[in-house]
Amino acid sequence: MNNSLIIVLWAGLTLLSVLTLIFIYLFIKKTISNRYEMRKKKLLEDYHKSDSVLERYLRTGHMERRMVLGSAVEYEAMQEYFVKRIQVVNEEEHQRIQLFFQQHLVDHYRKRLSSRRYNQRISSLLYIERFNLRELLPDLENLLSKKIGDVEKYAVLRVMAGLQSERIIEIMMDPTQNLPDYVCRQLLYPLNMNLMERFIAGFDQCPPSLQDNLLDILRIRNERSLAFLQMLELLVNSEREELRIRAIKALASFGYASKQGLQRIEESLDHWDAKSWQEKLMLTKLMGSIKSGPFLEKLQELISDRSFMIRSEAAASILLYKDGVQILRKIEASHEDRFAQDIAKEMLKRGIS
């Protein structure tokens, strides 16, 4: 009995000691964290003062010795200050901020990118892209070569795209990468047109998902390059339906086509019955966007199509033509198809009102 009691007492004292040590550790950690945050808050307040060393630098471009960073809290405070400040500066001040980061913080971020701590690597990516630190592109590529998770990999690729890295083209055109659609779009959207035209030139070598997303992003960005137009006109007769639909949709956004492009569209109409309703709908819309005599004749046929969506789009497209109102009035008054009459009447009400 006495031995059992002693064991219980020792177990209790051991547990109490462990809990006490944990409490002391958490208390010290919290105290250090509070002091760190208070120090950072004080630095931020000082930086925002009109006569601070950083404000003087932004006004004059003169770097003072006190701007040299030493402690971790100084790095973090200055980062936060510049991230907020860059949103309201003029072009000259913006360039001074970027110059400061390039001269004083590149090595700092280079070390963080090679850190074993995930949060340090990830948090650095924000500032590398925000302050256009292209000097670190080799370090980003090196990070990609290491064994990292998909989330970090996609984050690195997004920064490389934002920095207009040519390496992004090779990576995205590699079919073994299997990049999700949402990642493809995030990578394509910030790329300048010079890089986009590299994708256009090598379109046939792009994986199908990249082809689809490339067409969508160029359309969303409302690009109007000759290379893009020529590619779309060729894709109208692509063997892959999904590609044809996206190309037709993008062409409709263009609102015009070359003589050869018009011929290819007319050739596509010759195979109308073999097409899906989605492709028919996009072609119907295209014929309203790119106005041509043969297209108007086809639209007048389609206004009595079995599909309500096709009829409705045909009527809307006819209305876009010079004599569209008169044509719809004639259809409303004398067309043999009651459904064609109804949709013409409805579209006239919408268009005239």
Give a quick summary of the entry.
The chain is mainly α. It is 73% helix and 0% strand. Among the domains are: 74-165, no CATH class; 167-221, no CATH class.
Low-confidence stretches: none
Distance between the termini: 98 Å
The biggest sheet amounts to: none
Would you report the number of β strands?
0
Radius of gyration equals 32 Å
User: DSSP helix count?
Assistant: 20
Could you walk me through the main structural features you see in this protein, from its secondary elements to its overall organization?
The chain has 353 residues and is mainly alpha-helical. Among the domains are: 92 residues, no CATH class; 55 residues, no CATH class. It has 20 helices and no strands. Helix 14 packs parallel to helix 16. The chain is elongated. The protein starts with a helix and ends with a helix.
Task: Walk me through the topology.
Layout lengths: L1 H47 L4 H8 L11 H14 L5 H14 L1 H8 L4 H13 L6 H8 L5 H13 L4 H6 L8 H8 L4 H9 L6 H13 L5 H10 L5 H14 L4 H11 L7 H13 L3 H10 L5 H12 L4 H11 L3 H15 L1
